[in-house]
Prior knowledge:
This protein is of the alpha/beta class and 758 residues long. 67% of the residues lie in helices and 8% in strands. It has helices at residues 2-68, 76-125, 127-137, 143-152, 165-168, 174-183, 186-189, 197-207, 232-236, 251-261, 271-275, 277-280, 325-402, 407-505, 510-518, 523-538, 545-608, 650-663, 684-698, 735-742, 747-757; strands at 192-194, 214-216, 239-242, 266-269, 287-289, 293-299, 306-312, 611-617, 627-633, 641-642, 672-676, 705-709. Strand 9 (627-633) and strand 10 (641-642) form a beta hairpin.
Amino acid sequence: MQCKKFRDRLDNIENSFKQMLDRENQLSVKVNGKYKDMEDLEKQEHTRQEKIARAEKDLADAELELQNLPPFEPPKEKIEKLGAEILELEASAREKRYLKKEKEKLLDRNRVSARQTAERLREMENIKNKRLQALRNSGADKIFDAYQWVQAHQNEFKREVYGPVLVEVNISNQLHAGYLESHVPYYIWKAFITQDSTDRDLLFRNLKSFDVPVINHVPDGNRNPEPFNITQQMSSMGLYSRLDQVFDAPYAVKEVLIGQSGLEHSYIGSKKSDENADKAHSFGIMDLWTPENHYRWSKSRYGGHVSASVEAVSGSRLLLSNTEGDELNTLRAKKTEFDETISGLEASLKSMQSEINGLEDSAAQLRKLRDNLVNEAQLEKRKQKELQIRVNQKRLKLESMGKEEDMAAAMSKLVQDAENFNIQRFKCAIEIKKLLTQATGYRRSYAEKFMASTELEIKIKEMEACIKQQEKLALQASLHFERCKKEMEDHRQQLVAAKRAAESVTIITPALEQEFLQMPSTIEELNAAIQDITSQANSILFLNHNILEEYERRQKKIEELSVKLESDEKELSARLEELSNLKGKWLPTLRNLVAQINETFSKNFQEMAVAGEVSLDERGNEFDSYGILIKVKFRQAGELQVLSAHHQSGGERSVSTILYLVSLQDLTNCPFRVVDEINQGMDPINERKMFQQLVRAASQPNTPQCFLLTPKLLSDLEYGEACTILTVMNGPWIDQPSEVWKFGGSWGSVMGLLGESH
């Protein structure tokens, strides 16, 4: 307490000392400030006298400059004349802009009309895209890609390339469109037509991935078109046209359609023709279309008898009517007229804009000249005014300098203030001396009391350390007690669990309790007793030795059979693994080959008929039962059936067989192939398709040579450059022609020789 009391007194004296010291410092600063003000006042007076002299000189110079300034008259007449010219030019420019705005409105109206006409024209010309979309919906998924490729590479072809055929055909009658679409095979509609073998090869290589046919049209100068002639008798039974007469197409496209589909022999009749359909064959008509039915007559090559078939006519799905031809021409003419009008208006607007720009430039130049004159006048006025203001400002400044306070009075006041501040500083120094004396006495008493309190604090810390050591020992003893208590509880729980397990085996009776009391009391003695009893049990012998021998014999046999069974299972697993390895070497290759055959077969069959596929008939590990399954479908309503005599006709089986052989063309390595009379029994349409497929496959590079043996071929078949026709001549007159051929004679010579012999 006494130390704290002396400490408080010292603190109070220290605070008073600091306050007095701060006051003395403040007074010292004020005194120094007054001295500084005195010096500044002397400098200001000297500077003020210099400024007054300088201001008097500046005022005299400014007044002289103002007197010498010449008078200025602004050019009003010239400015007014320029303003009138500017107004005239602006009026002309406004008139030109008004006329330009009217022409822009007219141009906007013409542009709107031209845009509407172009949109209508695009809508009507969009029939090509509609037909391409129809082809894609019908199964030609990549027809758009093929068409875009051909359009993008037109410059690479030697001659014009058309296609697909569907977009090249123009037909005005929707009923005729249905006839034509049903008559022409589907693969032709998506085919592209070339007129040069080089173009055909280029197109075939690049369109192969798009799954579209390529047909090369070679003009036949010797072909005489079938004349179109409707006799009076034919007209009386309702016949009025022929399929090759009802549509327009480029020459090459039309020739391919006629040659591939026989349009020159297909006639069109009215409803009256349905009533007289049985008479049509008498006019030599083999194919007839009516609004309701499609009649076809075929003549047997062997017996000569004629058979007829009738099918219902279906509507057109691919061909779309384009009867808006006249409207298309009108719209194109209107668009041309609008384009010319717009071009003229745009040129006129450019000319008017040039005139407006010229007028605006002239007006801008005059306006700039006028502004320069006005600015010059304003500059002169401003210069005179600024000079007058400067004279007034210098006069006022000089007057204000003369009215400033007297320096002697200010200096006397500063000396008095400094003297007062020094007196206050002396009083502060006396007070500080008293405070220092008191502080010295208090600090001595405080040091004595502080030493006594330090000794007491050391004794207190030693006693606190002893207390903490005792508390630590007490805590360790408490933890040891808790640990022993927990171990005792765990042993108690184990004892209860062991007792419960023993009681679950048997109930402890008084007799059993007596036996327990007689047993050893330690674990080591109990283990020794258990070993003794086990040894006694093992020393007991069997009375019947045969039973033991039989048991040992059977046990040995079981072990031998187990070993043999394990060995057989391992051998079986090894053989199965070896079989699986061998199968894994050739089966994926076989599946891949069958998949390639199926891809080519399906694509070729889709062009020939409806659908077909080739698959591998796998039978697990029964390799002798493996085989190839060929499934085909020749009708839309049917399902895929395995190729057999029970489901397909002879012609259908021939078509399927040749397509399968064509699919093998790229996969087998052999010097040549021979196909014998495969076209016998086929109808003309399938025979023509088959021949085209065979020619295309045999003409591919790196394929074996193919021989087709047949007693006859259809007329107007398409032959490639890689095809050669060998005619076997035989008969009673073969000797004479052979002599002519031996010396390289021509066919005409041979025919002439034959004529002379007859």
